[in-house]
């Protein structure tokens, strides 16, 4: 299947994801503040755990600037197990559907074996969404090894927010 390019500068069609802590979190659509969404591969990925542990360590810096949502295609049981093991403080969502992955422009992978996982899953992505629901920033990878530097990304997002920078890369 051809990879879809995310529509930066455009609105994300809102969708809800269930959150381990209860309720749902909406991706896209109007919000009271900026939102950063991090998509991870799932419970089976040790590189994801390292990245998310780093995010949790600096979550207070991120949360001071914007909402932070982390999501995967995992089942509730898998997401709950990760939360129990790592004690992350960010909103951890689960059940990302393949159509939603593709709408975000994420790369989708099939499991290499049932030991890895049993369903298709999203490769990593990060999405900066303005309060009006438009997509400001996209960082996607086709595999687990490429992740944004959280310090640089936060610094750049603060600059964009503070200076009301226009969306780039629309041409």
From TrEMBL:
Molecular function as annotated in GO: antioxidant activity; oxidoreductase activity
Signal sequence extent: none
Gene3D superfamilies per UniProt: Glutaredoxin
Name of the protein described by the UniProt record: AhpC/TSA family protein
Stored Pfam families: AhpC-TSA (PF00578)
Residue intervals of the Thioredoxin domain: 6-159
């Amino acid at each position: 299947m051809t990879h879809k390019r995310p529509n930066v500068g455009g609105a994300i069609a809102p969708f809800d994801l269930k959150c381990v802590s209860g309720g749902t979190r909406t991706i896209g659509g109007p919000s009271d503040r900026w939102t950063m969404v991090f998509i991870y591969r799932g419970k089976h990925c040790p590189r994801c755990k390292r990245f998310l542990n780093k995010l949790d360590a600096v979550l207070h810096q991120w949360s001071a600037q914007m909402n932070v949502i982390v999501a995967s295609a995992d089942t509730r049981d898998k997401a709950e197990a990760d939360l129990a093991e790592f004690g992350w403080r960010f909103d951890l969502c689960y059940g990302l559907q393949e159509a939603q992955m593709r709408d975000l422009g994420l790369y989708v992978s099939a499991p290499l074996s049932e030991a890895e996982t049993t369903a298709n899953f999203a490769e990593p992505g990060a999405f900066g969404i303005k309060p009006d629901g438009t997509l400001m920033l996209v960082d996607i990878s086709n595999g687990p090894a490429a992740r944004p530097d959280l310090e640089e990304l936060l610094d750049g997002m603060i600059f964009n927010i503070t200076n009301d920078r226009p969306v780039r890369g629309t041409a």
